[in-house]
Amino acid sequence: MDILINQGKIAEIGTDLAIEGYYTVDATDKIVIPGLIDMHCEICEPGYEHRENLITASLSAARGGFTSITCNPNTLPAIDNKTVVEYIKAKSITDAVTHLFPYGCLTKGCENNELTEYGEMQLSGTVALSDGDIPIQDNSLVNKIFRYVSMLDMPIIMHCEDTSISNNSGIHEGYTSTRLGLKGFPVVAETMHLARNILLSKEYDIHLHIAHVSTKESVELIRMAKAQGIHITAETSPRYFILDETMADHYNTFAKVSPPLRTSEDIEGIIQGLKDGTIDVISSDHKPNTIDSKQLEFQVASFGFSSFETAFKLAYTHLVSNNQLSLNDLIQKMSHNPAQILGINKGHIKVGYDADIVIVDQHDTHTINPNIFLSKAKYSLYEGIEVDVNITNTIISGKNYGYTL
Ligand SMILES: [Zn+2]
Predict the structure, then answer these.
(1) Confidence of residue 188 (pLDDT cuts 50, 70, 90)
(2) Residue 14 pLDDT class (50, 70, 90 cuts)
């Protein structure tokens, strides 16, 4: 089949659509998929441009097959009012190669004190509300938030962590943490918070989206909530179905993430949740930090790592190549479902839609090399890991970015 793109839109899908004077991209023997949509990433602009900015973030995202990205609002200033939403949207038009759909803060400055103006931010273009990776602790505050959001049609995205028991830790409370003598983040610090948020979603009939699910117990809770008809969706990221707590051995700070890498049973539980539809979305969880902030003692090192350029390749290799998910299911979780959850008109290759298309070479086995990342954070926990596929082209609103490496 041919896809004819005109003025950034898909104009026609059929055979023999070649038109004199049109530029042609040859996708023979490759797979053509809708552009991926990332629901969980940090762009770091404004305020933390030494870590990443809109230019580098979007180039890195596009390299990983994402044609649309969101942004966690814990920037400086935080995306907590109309002016900052308008600023980031305008800046994304000049700086970003991808589309950008901002999230607005649940609380001013993501500080867990005062509510922001949700309706006003929605009118300026936010697609969801979230405090990013900062979990809301106070029950009376979170109750107010859900009650307020019940007047609007916008999902709440929550990172689930009871900070009074998580020890601000980036390692699972278990065998490895005990052996290393580090305080761990127990499973219950995630699940208790998750249970509370599910109950609030039920009480106020709010669409609650759970960010990066890491434990099999969380998958079970979400499965139960869905069975009861509670309006809940969930996401995970590749590290939670590929890597376990032992990655933090030798105090490897690249493995310091929140929630932490869990156990092999959790990995099985997450994969089961992906297979049966309990987990709707796979996000990149791109959290770039300076290398200096990672090369510190484990307790003080920063959380997270650069992930845009590895998410799809890893998910494909570990789920599709291993016959855990079909390619269609993977595309659902990385494109169609995020579009539906965020209420954006994307996630399809269909006439009339934006020409956001990715071409994948499924026979290009290679190892992850962070030195060639387009992100400012040129390091990864996956360095040297083998993947089966590569992205050869990312087409965004009809503009083609071709890659050779
Ligand atoms: Zn988080």
Answers:
(1) very high
(2) very high
Ligand 1: centre distance to CA 17 (Å): 45
Ion ligand 1 residues within 5 Å by Cβ: 133, 159, 211
Ligand 1 centroid from CA 103, angstroms: 14
Average pLDDT over residues 171-186: 97
CA of 390 to the centre of ligand 1 (A): 27
77-104 pLDDT tens trace: 999 999 999 999 999 999 999 999 999 9
Rounded to an integer, the average pLDDT of 306-313 is 98
For the chain, the C-alpha Rg in angstroms (whole number) is 20
Do the Cβ atoms of 65 and 314 come closer than 8 Å?
no
For residue 325, how far is its CA from the centre of ligand 1 (angstroms)?
25
Indicate if 138 belongs to the active site: no
Q: Which residue has the tokens 């490759």?
A: 30
User: What span, in angstroms and rounded, lies between the C-alpha atoms of 260 and 237?
Assistant: 12
Residue 360's beta-bridge partner residues? 31, 391
Q: For tokens 């003598």, what's the residue? A: 181
Residue with tokens 């896809």: 3
- CA–centroid distance, 161 to ligand 1, in Å, is 8
Span 371-396, average pLDDT: 96
CA dihedral 116, 53, 137, 117 (to 10 degrees): 10
The alpha helices in 6-117, defined as continuous H runs, are 54-63, 82-95
Task: Please tell me the pTM assigned to this model.
Answer: 0.97
Which residue out of 95, 266, 285, 356 is catalytically annotated?
285
Report the alpha-carbon distance of residue 309 to residue 321 in Å, rounded: 18
